[in-house]
Amino acid sequence: MTETLLHASNVAIEIAGLELVSQVNLKVDKGGSVGIVGETGSGKSLTCRAFAGSLAVLGGRISRGTLSLAGRNVTSPRAHAEAGLYGRVVTLMPQNSMSALNPLMRIGTHLTETIKALDADGGIAPKVRATELLDRVGLREPERVLRQYAHQLSGGMRQRVMIALAIAGRPHLLIADEPTTALDVSVQKEILELLRRLNHEENMGLILVSHDLGVVKAATQSVAVMYGGMVVEHGTTETVLRHPRHPYTQALLRARPAIGRTERLIGIPGIPASPDAWPSGCRFAPRCPHALTQCNASVPALETLDAHHVVACCRVHELTTDDRVGASA
Ligand SMILES: Nc1ncnc2c1ncn2[C@@H]1O[C@H](COP(=O)(O)OP(=O)(O)OP(=O)(O)O)[C@@H](O)[C@H]1O
């Protein structure tokens, strides 16, 4: 039987009285992998921070719904912190985390301090454990890397160090927020392969955030598409990318460049929805080619189409699926 590691039920996130994210329903099973995609500002990073229990540093909180991790209710930041799950059960590699390495601290110090803080040496000297971790993330000559500083490493090496730090406490769930951004294509592939190996070989659950659908396709079993602070479509990655049902997912796929693609790329007209002026109904309606007056009446709830596919669009049953947009995903 599959074991649920993370369960977000109708989660909303608020900062300074403004609801920035709403209606997040997501489950990650032990050893499962979920992608979160959406354009900038859609709420991906705040959702990750909520899962990792680090909203408070932004002055944010989960204002509605419930969040449980490894069977514990961690909806409030206090419950999350008191449960001591960070680093051991869940860990977050935030966006641009590579630049968070202290330039004056050797890589070895970063690792041994983290291992000690998490009490995660596993009965061996922290330095030996640090060497093991660098080896595990595919860094050659780990002893040499331990003595180096961040500026002496390439971008790909720094990202591997970040992954080593993230897995130091043997977490059950790794959340990686845009882990391949700012890396060149061949290094991106290697980092994705490493995340996939950790997910498959060590049964570590993975939440992978990206605005690149190709990245998510390569490494996740299911995907949640976010727009305007809400999940608008969710299902197995194969189903969502091959047979997208939400007009926003379809638009994202039409706008995506891919090698060998022959059809014209079509951008998404209009500007993204903004939290200080959310539309009254469907948040994508002002940009949607299929919108009718009824779409402005109320925010559509997620509707289950089948066991592997949920969509929040009030016209989902009328609109035909354009499988061609998914064919090149
Ligand atoms: N600390 C904050 N204070 C106020 N608003 C915030 C804060 N952090 C994020 N927001 C707003 O919340 C919304 C969601 O932001 P979030 O960073 O989660 O988006 P995202 O999908 O991760 O975007 P990106 O791909 O650019 O990282 C945006 O409108 C953003 O401006």
UniProtKB/TrEMBL annotation:
<dbReference type="InterPro" id="IPR003439">
    <property type="entry name" value="ABC_transporter-like_ATP-bd"/>
</dbReference>
<dbReference type="Pfam" id="PF00005">
    <property type="entry name" value="ABC_tran"/>
</dbReference>
<dbReference type="InterPro" id="IPR017871">
    <property type="entry name" value="ABC_transporter-like_CS"/>
</dbReference>
<dbReference type="GO" id="GO:0016887">
    <property type="term" value="F:ATP hydrolysis activity"/>
</dbReference>
<dbReference type="InterPro" id="IPR003593">
    <property type="entry name" value="AAA+_ATPase"/>
</dbReference>
<dbReference type="GO" id="GO:0005524">
    <property type="term" value="F:ATP binding"/>
</dbReference>
<dbReference type="InterPro" id="IPR013563">
    <property type="entry name" value="Oligopep_ABC_C"/>
</dbReference>
<keyword id="KW-1003">Cell membrane</keyword>
<feature type="domain" description="ABC transporter">
    <location>
        <begin position="6"/>
        <end position="253"/>
    </location>
</feature>
<keyword id="KW-0472">Membrane</keyword>
<dbReference type="GO" id="GO:0005886">
    <property type="term" value="C:plasma membrane"/>
</dbReference>
<protein>
    <submittedName>
        <fullName>Oligopeptide transport ATP-binding protein AppD</fullName>
    </submittedName>
</protein>
<keyword id="KW-0067">ATP-binding</keyword>
<dbReference type="GO" id="GO:0015833">
    <property type="term" value="P:peptide transport"/>
</dbReference>
<dbReference type="InterPro" id="IPR050388">
    <property type="entry name" value="ABC_Ni/Peptide_Import"/>
</dbReference>
<dbReference type="InterPro" id="IPR027417">
    <property type="entry name" value="P-loop_NTPase"/>
</dbReference>
<comment type="similarity">
    <text>Belongs to the ABC transporter superfamily.</text>
</comment>
<keyword id="KW-0547">Nucleotide-binding</keyword>
<keyword id="KW-0813">Transport</keyword>
<dbReference type="Pfam" id="PF08352">
    <property type="entry name" value="oligo_HPY"/>
</dbReference>
